[in-house]
Records
---
Amino acid sequence: MNSLLEQFLSEARDFLQSISEKLMQLESNPNSVPLMTELFRFVHTLKGNSGLFDFPEMTRVLHASEDLMDAVRNGRVNYSNTLADQLLEAMDFVGMMMDEIQVEGKIIKNYSATAAEVAKSLRGLLDSADAVNVPVAIEIYTEEGLAAKAISWAELPELNLPESIAMALYRCVMDGDTVFWLQYTPEPECFFKGEDPFFLARQVPDTLWRNVISTNDASSLAEMDVYRSQLIFQFLTTAPTEELDDLFRYVPDQIHRIKIPALAFVKPNGSVNNQTVDDEFISSALVLLEENNLAGLTRTLLTMLELSAPDLWSSSVLRWVLQCIEVEPDNERMQYALLNALRTQITPDWSSMTPTIKPHEVAIEPVAVRSVITPTIPVISSGLPDELLQIFHTVVNTQREILSLPGKWSAGRLQSVAATLLGCYRTINHVYEIETEAALQLALTEKSPLPLLALLEAALLDVAVVNTPESEIIESLGGRENANRGSEDVVSVGRRSEDAAGASQSKTLKVDQEKIDRLMNLIGEMVVAKNALPYLANRAETVFGVRELAREIKSQYAVINRVAEEMQDTIMQVRMMPMSFIFQRFPRMVRDISRKLGKEVELVLEGENTEADKNIVEALSDPLIHIVRNSLDHGLELQDVRVAAGKNAVGKLIIRATQESDRVLIEIIDDGNGIDPTVIKNKAYEKGLIDEATLERISDQDAVNLVFAAGFSTASVVSDLSGRGVGMDVVRSAVERVNGTVGIESIAGKGTRIYLSLPLSMAVTNVMIIQSNEQIFGVPMDLVVETVRVPRSQVRMIKRKQTTVLRGRIVPLLSLNDLLANDVAQLPNEDDEFATLIVRIHGEHVGILVDNFRETVDIILKPMTGILGGLPGYSGAALLGDGSVLMVLNPRELI
Amino acid sequence: MAIEYKKSLAVFSDFVGVEEAENLLEWLLKNPKGKINLAECGHIHAANLQVLMAVKPQIVAGSKDENLQLWLGML
């Protein structure tokens, strides 16, 4: 994958995230213009970026989204939940494609159909909104209108084909091929996009006929703009739809495709002169046809053909009849029509034989159509466009002429005129319903068109009067429109300059995580190397006896130490990420889930700017999603239940992150129905997780904590228990993997609070070095409660296990040598005391007997890899200043 | 050069790109009787095509590329 694509993917993900964020924000604040503008900009930029690559499907969907957002921004479409849903769906689709690109480097599956569908549904929103705002325009121009309407015979393109090609095509259709008439109208600016429409046109497969038209409208050649495409390409092809779709996948809106019926090709051509085929021949041929004597007819026709000049129109007809007899011997109607045409010298009207043709699959140039609508909108909404007025006048004038016609006026005729007029008046928003009705009644009684005519004249005058100021309005509107356009230009220019300024001022750098990790490793080595200096100073003094040098080394060490520590701090800072990285996905998730469950939930995010190491933040994401999902699914109740319980109908879910010294505290608080400890207790007892004695004396808090117990999250428990505790043990282990802790507090009926406490960074670990069996080990300081020396006399055996009493508490004692399976007794000191490390594991204090304590050090803990990675007793290893390796124990696993 | 301009003949060869269009039009305007030789031409960019269509110069030799000739034969 090239770096440009990589950058696009990483940026695009950010954009998608921002888009869904903005959509969420819009949901609570649907009229915010800045939000809308920003949203539009995101979609716009994303679309632009996607255009750099060969992902037409993605670009198409984004383009549709952009159009929709543009409409929303300009107030043409109202923001709605449906719209948000559609947009989110579209973004999901884009995200899905991006996933595929990420993995495969390109889009493998064929998404064009899905993309078209998504784009269409987005555009559907646009159109339905247009329909509401500009009913008049839509009647005339709708895209759906064109798509849905069956193409009538008259709308078929004019085909002027050489006879041989026409016959070949006719035979193709008769053989079951589908012949498409394809018109490709490249957009004028296409050359600037690096397109070569002619090249594309040459790629159309199975072309039987091709043509290119120039729409050059420049008055002189010198004025011709060679870089504006003025070409229209036309084809007749038998290529399958998919192949055409694929070929024109970048420009689907510039293609107009119509399926051509066989008869459309049957069009005799040639020179027409007075010398027609004589009637006698035609009659005899018709008789042969009636007798169904096709062999005889063929012979007669061939003879006639030999007698007449080949370039005559009549000869062409004869050839067509022969062709028809050969291909469709049963189609007598067609043969008859053709023979009859010899007499009339007019190409038969095939439309009577095939009344309508099925609607074509691709709508005609929706883009061009829209560009017609757009500028007229403001005019229509307040005044009347010129074209419409013209149409209005034409219709009304026709009606006036009709009314002026002399003759007998029947009631139906009067009514029809009245209905037409009424329709016209409605179109231009002049309501004359009552007047028209009255005039109609009068006309009916008088059986004369005069009352209607009078009304018409009056109304026409009225419209003209009203319209004089209106034409001014139109003009001023036009002016304002121009002004608007001007200001829009200013806006867009401003935006671009803003962008440029933003780019130059941007202080953010996107750096590959690997580089940071490498930096991290290097600083780790630096720290190790630096730590070697005190050893060196020591050696200088003791081994070589140069105190001066030792002192100088030490002072140098102090400087290096300071710089190295600062450096380390800074690199840690680089790795820090705000919690918003994982928080930002919750609004969408909560929205989706709560909708699915039919619950109303208000999500409150706090402390999104709290930072923690990237690894920690990333490790948090899955457990958090799990917890939030649980809270939504099982914690928060349905609306009516909540109301019945006297709570606010809308449930509240708070996700809060705070920093507490060197740890991050994350709380997920809901005001749902909480966890009932009694139920948990009983379930745990049933499951055999606790015994009867525990069941009796376990505190409510401890009972709630049981949800973290492994094995508690089985399916049956889930359903019986309203599911609290689903995979909570998974959550706990995930959090503990990054040295975090998780706790839960719940009051039945009131709500639940789950809190996760995590280290800010896992890069530097403070460990205590201990000695046992002549080796040194590290123990993470955050586990160590205290270090004590326990005299041998204080060690008691309870149930064969060593224990001691420490400050009134019984503490079990474990020997490290035993834990590590070394068959050596721990060494006491001279006073026969054991060095005991008191550690806290799952809230319990445990004493670990070691041989001796050493200093505490900050180390960069490297998790063990390979075969050693499978050793659960160690959390990793680190290099010490003197170059030796320190194994760091993981007491949680060890005990 | 994809187009070699001689006294009154423009010889197209290989692929004639979009950037040639302006020169071609200029040349054709200067040489109203200029002729075109397409024999060695494989493809012309649409911009050139529309120039040829607008000016309609005499084409003295069609392209040896059959597909291209199918299109240009109509000029």
Note: The two ends of chain A are 47 Å apart (CA to CA).
---
Amino acid sequence: MSDTAAAHEAPTSTGIDHKKLIMWLFLASDCMFFGTLISTHLLYRKLYPAGFTDAEGHQRFIQNLFNIELTSFSTFILLMSSFLMALAVSAMHKGQIKSFRRNVLGVIFFGLIFLGCQVFEFTHFYHQGLTIQNSVLGSTFYVLTGTHGTHVAIGVLWLILMYFYSFTGKLGGHMGALDVEVAGLYWHFVDIVWIIIFTAVYLVEYLGPNGIWGSGLPAVAK
Amino acid sequence: MSHDSHHAPVACKTELAPERSDLGLIRPDRSTGLIDWLTTVDHKKIGILYGAFAMFYFLVGGVEALAIRTQLARPDNDFVTARMYNQLFTMHGTTMIFLGVMPLSAAFFNFLVPLQIGARDVAFPRLNAFSLWTFVFGAFVLNASWFFEFAHLAGWFNSFEWHKALVYTDFAPANGWFSYAPLSGTFGQNGQALRFTGVGTDFWIIGIQVLGIASLAASFNFICTIINMRAKGMTMMRLPVFTWMTLVTAVLIILAFPAITVALIELMFDRAFGANFFNPSSGGQPVLWQHLFWIFGHPEVYILVLPAMGIVSEVLPTFSGKSLFGYPIIVFSGAVIGFLGFAVWSHHMFTTGLGPVPTAAFSLLTMAIAVPTGVKIFNWLGTIWGGRVRFTPPMVLALGFIWMFMCGGFSGVMHSSAPADSQQQDSYFVIAHFHYVLLGGVLLGLMAGLYFWFPKIFGRMPNAPIAYIASGMVILGFNLAFGPMHYLGLAGMPRRTHTYHAGNGWETWNFVATIGAYILGLGVFLAFVNLVWTAFRGKKCSNDPWDGRTLEWSLPSPVPEYNFAQAPIVAARDAYFEDKHGGKRIGTENDGGEAGVHMPSQSWMPLLASAGFLFAGFGMPMMAMGIPHAGWIVISGLGVLFIGIWLWALEGPGGYMLKTPAASGTPAPTETVAH
Amino acid sequence: MSSSHEAAPSPDFLAEEVRRYHHFIVLALWLAVVTGAEIVLIFLPLPVAVVLTILTLMSAGKFFAVILWFMHLIYDKRLLFWCFFAGLALAFATYTALLCLFSADRIDTRWFS
């Protein structure tokens, strides 16, 4: 996981490790990435506030589809996984490899729970009649949250590999801590993207009679 | 004074003992020949490979352009079919932008940036190799569409069931380089995903996606290198302007490419899985594609032009014998151009009906971009003013750049006015404008760079008379080809039509343009032949034939693998020039010790990981063709990518020590140069 | 390069890590509380504009709390913050502009409402 050039010991011009800098640059770039996806979803919500039409031809409102309890639970899980990741990085900095392993297992476990919730949510929505093919809402929703889920899955895979790598004894010292910290940065970023998605995609649909996009429509039966 | 004596290498890496990676495999460090080039992590070799591929694709794109011009030479021509014409202009644009200009710029980034900042390599050498091979495979996938198209035209697919089931049989992309939806997308409700175009579009989608990954990876690497690996004393405001423009370009790439990445994912979902992002029959907004494309596409224009501006900013001071006039302003203008480049995307879409307020806003912002650009041009003129100008081939090309780029800039300001633009939209006037910018600007700039740095790259001097003739042909042919298009466009000739009828008054100038295009094509070909010949057989030259200003000229030509035997310490802007003609401005850092220079190990893994994109890139369009089991090719491609990255992580960075004369204490004979 | 022979962390460094540990715990609690408050907030009978403003502030607060503490930006060099902020600000500005460029009254929604 180390790929620094000749200068593995040499100080950098800014004093920032190459890997940390490149990860932050990647995250800056990923802001544009998720910005594009989120804005695609939001602008179609703005254009078509009414939701979607299911297979039987019934008009469906998004408030009746979303399950805010489930989403809140998975949001909470992801936030706590971020907390454990911070502890794992802290443990690595202190050279406590056992504590690192414990915390990272927790992160992996929470990440898998989040993914499980997402699979459940997708299946549920699909049975409710929202598909990627039958509406713009389905396309934007599944692709946005699915891309985020893919990011989570990559993070989980990364951490699993790192967990097993730690048993080889090669994950240690400054560079080992740096590798974990960089993986942590990625994980936290996935978390903050979800913080935005939770508010912008889920919560705002509950404001007013039909969510902020659909204030002009007849009220939904709750 | 010179530091040459400190740079002659004494150790050849092929003589070192083989070393095993953390996986137990022998590292390809001691390899030679083909394996050396395939596994190299040396930024100079990677730069040369980028350059070689880019020049090849320039010629491919040039042949496509000449086919277009041949078709348009006279009215009602039938040299190519309408469909082939569409494919030609699509692939011409895509090739020139993504496979010609961007990789050629990347070649300069790779070769020059570490040398100019006084570093021994880039921050992530293996990631750099990954960028190169990902670009190579992406380019290959994109151009493979031609082979499918020709195989189809030759009837080779006729006996296959999947071929009989195809509704559209265009195998090469034919949507234009922007692939506007809905033409590139789908129609029909509930996931029918009926299409307007065949698998050519799928080739385009996956090809651009892979090329985007290559550009992104390279850009992260270069920003990191420039920010983090500067020699001691090389403050940001002492960086050579080319390095500055590389930094701005790389920032533009990492912030602009995600938009097209997402747009391509959405388009892919539309085509492959029946999603509705741009599907007008299900409420998708095709105009969203235009927005997302140009959010990427306009910064892309500056991604193309800023490196050329950087090159010109190096060439002009060298051959005027003066330092660059207004260095801070040039750097600042470059950054402002980059920043404003994100705020003007909708000027490509004035005719879509944005509404009066957005139109006015984007119009004003577009005009504002002319200011920093104009500032740069005045600074370049100020650089030449009062200097002892030497009209060497790079200088001639750089001066051509200023002149041609200004012409392109003037017609650009005309477009920024929305009412004028609505008259010029989709006419040949636009073609004239962006070719003046991209060809008269970027190509001349890049050619200037090639002629300028070739003596450094290969230690050989290109033939000057041929270079002058080629430059003259390029500038003359270019103006003959594209000057008349201003007139043709204002006279109403539309873009992207495969032919035109006689009697519109367009015949003469089209014929002139075609003649010009052939002169231009011959000129570029001659220039490239001259360069390739130089690389192998050219006359050897000194290490500093131009009286250069920046650090790379302090090194021997060709540059040894480790670049700097001792890391330099820099005390001024244009330190090498000051050092030669003034007081001492370059010191050396005693960092090597007795062990020599630490070199990064070569690796197969970047190539392996990139090869995953080759499989995935072929698999996606084959799925769209309906070839059975093609999905497994995609999955195996992703598997190869994963395995490549995994082994890459596990093998460890390695590295070996290369003895330098500084380490051994004795100046060695130069014959032991490894390559 | 994972060099396994490292000097043991200095006491100062360990004290700093312990301090950060407490920050992390406090922050995790706050994140949970704010998320809970968000969920309650959307069901309160308040004007949409008020709720939306509070929601935006809360989610921005969580966002920056995570990048500053969990992602160490508050402890690290400031350059990293600006690197990230450049991307964040550009994304925010670009896509806010894009959202404003689309409006429902400029398109034909007859078939889709």
Note: Residues 13-71 of chain C form one domain.
---
Amino acid sequence: MDTALDTPLRFVIHSDFAEGRQVQHAILEEITRHHFGPDATFAIRLALEEALINAIKHGNKFDPNKVVRVEASITPQIAEIIVEDEGTGFQRACVPDPTTDENVERIHGRGVMLIESYMDEVNWQSGGRRIRMVRRNDDAGR
Amino acid sequence: MSESPARLNVTQQKDVSIVEFTENKILDEMNITEIGQALDVIVQSKDRPKLLLDFANVDHLSSAALGMLINVNTKLKQQNGQLRLASIRPQIMEVFVITKLNRLFRISATRAEAFGSFE
């Protein structure tokens, strides 16, 4: 069991995609180290990508004076990731369903839905500035 | 043939432009913008364009990539063109199904099948 390093990973980054990419790499390395299966790894990569884009672009609006905080607690069984921005937040209920006939050709608006589809638990907190998402490792113990 | 970024292989077969994504991830916003611009050039260069996108190498894409594909599809329709997607891996196909974009796009299992489906 990889228990010695199971303390949360914590990052504070600028509103910059390149820095977001480094965070993704670090977290996905941990996911690999804990032997997450391919489906869970795919889900976490996708959800993390979407959450970081939301925080950097839509939350902080690339403001260099604002930061994004990321925390990841990863064990062989479960990954819990929190992404928090310093924007004005958003109301989840106000994000239109991108799968309806009138919205399916809209260019934006699928990130939130993909996160919620691929992660086992998703909580929007702090007025939409903070997302907590959890994904279990389907392959744990195999 | 128009110039294309390094992350795309573009070939012309009869009247169909076949675009193969050479990288396995279509995630980065900068890359997606660049790909979208390159596809725009192909679409705008022809009357009734036929565009086949081959996803055989792609194992990750983001919602921004989906938005880019919708944009390309809209422009093609404006020019009475046709778009086909081919060789999408199962994990990526699931993304299309979840977002119900499998109903918007015509998706074929293979490049040959997609090529044969143009009208």
Note: Chain A is about 35% helix and 25% strand.
